[in-house]
Amino acid sequence: MLLEVSQIQKKYSPASSSLVLNNISFQQNEGQKIAVTGSSGAGKTTLLKIIAGWEQPDSGMVMFKGEKVKGPEEQLLPGHKGIAYLSQHFELWNNYTIHEILHYNTQLSDKESSELFQICRIEHLLKRKTNQLSGGERQRVALARLLITKPQLLVLDEPFSNLDYEHKQILKAILSDIEQYEKINFLLASHDANDVLPWADSVLVLQKGTLIQQATPHEVYYYPINEYTAALFGYYNVLPSDIVPAQLMPENRKHSNSCIIRPHQLQISNSNIPTSLQGRVKEVLFYGNFYLLVIETTFAGTVLVNHPNHHVAVGSHVNIEFCNF
Ligand SMILES: Nc1ncnc2c1ncn2[C@@H]1O[C@H](COP(=O)(O)OP(=O)(O)OP(=O)(O)O)[C@@H](O)[C@H]1O
Predict the structure, then answer these.
(1) Residue 182: pLDDT above 80?
(2) Would you tell me the crossing angle of helices 165-182 and 110-119 to the nearest 10 degrees?
(3) What is the CATH number of the domain that holds 56?
(4) Ligand 1 atom closest to the CA of 49, numbered from 1
(5) InterPro entries under this entry (predicted)?
(6) Is the ipTM of this complex over 0.85?
(7) Range of 297's domain?
């Protein structure tokens, strides 16, 4: 077992009645990529900081490779040598060159360093000073700075949140290279479905400090535990269970009255034969590779349906059917 998080509780203000983290427990196996997601203020950063030893939990324990991760109140220098934490608000020393920053206290040989700098796409930046870098470059240097300590677990807090598309793709390629060459384990917090779903082996969903679902990306996307989780991963509909085909119902919620269905699981019927779901098209919204139809239905309120083209007129009456899966 790489990481074992047991019954973590945290509140920042002793007077406050609400917990920032409420009894969080989960485990991470060697090689498993875990993403922590949740809306703003759900407790992602606090959880990551506690795991990395940068924040003190009120109770509970973090074990890393069988050893307790001590909080800042239990040791002089915060952090754990096997765990590297890249904060959203990382800092780089001012007035030093990148070369100086990355060679201070390094545990790497020259060959290893040069490989790492290549992986992090920063070889061309070594002579510059920290104030001569873009945001994306600063982040890659901060990442390399963590990796020279040879951590076994890299904890990344919203690493993509301030990057444009191009720099996001660069960082994703870097993380994939690091995973292959350095054999590092990852724990990542993000509120963006596009960062979480294609990347993670397991997704932890936090809602107001409580871990409400831990499952594969496929499960959290298609079988979210509640509407909050559904909304984290994109548009959704809540439909009465009696009109939803059995194969689309989550196994453990067969008796529930409603079911979450994604817009691409529905389509407009080509035939005039009435289906169990009918309505009037209210809006046709362009999303690049598809159109989103907003349809006012008779029985299920507003229903969203993906459509490949705009050949559906606003105001027209349509029959909605479930796609074949
Ligand atoms: N140092 C602190 N002192 C007091 N309250 C704090 C502190 N840090 C965080 N909080 C509060 O704890 C809660 C959880 O914050 P946290 O930063 O862990 O959430 P988050 O899910 O990472 O949010 P975001 O996605 O916006 O970064 C929030 O209500 C926040 O206001």
Answers:
(1) no
(2) 140
(3) 3.40.50.300
(4) 18
(5) AAA+_ATPase, ABC_SmlMolc_Importer, ABC_transporter-like_ATP-bd, ABC_transporter-like_CS, Mo/tungstate-bd_C_term_dom, P-loop_NTPase, Transp-assoc_OB_typ2
(6) yes
(7) 235-322
